Amino acid sequence: MSIEIRALSPVDAERFVGLFDAMAFEHAREWKTCYCRYYQTGCDFDAWIKRTGAENRADALDAIRAGTMHGYVAIEDDRCVGWVNAGDALDYVRLHDDLKGYVGSARIGLTICFVIEPAHRNRGLARKLLQAAIDGFRAQGYDAAIALPVDRPMADERRYRGTMNMYREAGYVEKERHEPVVVMRLDLK
To answer: What pLDDT does residue 63 have?
Structure first.
């Protein structure tokens, strides 16, 4: 079957949460309850730790339906098999302090989390999702896109921010290092 990459919309809300529901996240069990809400939730870390998976799932569904959670999904056989969280950098409230020096008055897109079903890993799906995000940022008139990959040896499934090589191949350039995080940027205009 073929995989369709498309912007997350309310039509795909249940498919999106289904990706998290179905994955075991054996490498990082706490990720199973995130539903990709960590960076967009303004509570402090102690409050975040106390949130349940059901709360984050409901929050994700509400945000998708309200049009405030953005990204791209990979759909195969009417189910979500991959995802990238991609939106306006200012939407990621947990990263405001870290990003303010890179955003300024420019309109900057950010890709932060990739979730790929295990059977679909190492097939270029994350690169396709990244390209969809870049194309979407361009179409929406963004000035640039940034990414924050981690540059240290780790198992592939823990590289949820994407790999440096993947971003380089897409034209991103390294701007700064804050070990182990690397700030990479792609000018879109």
So the answer is: 97
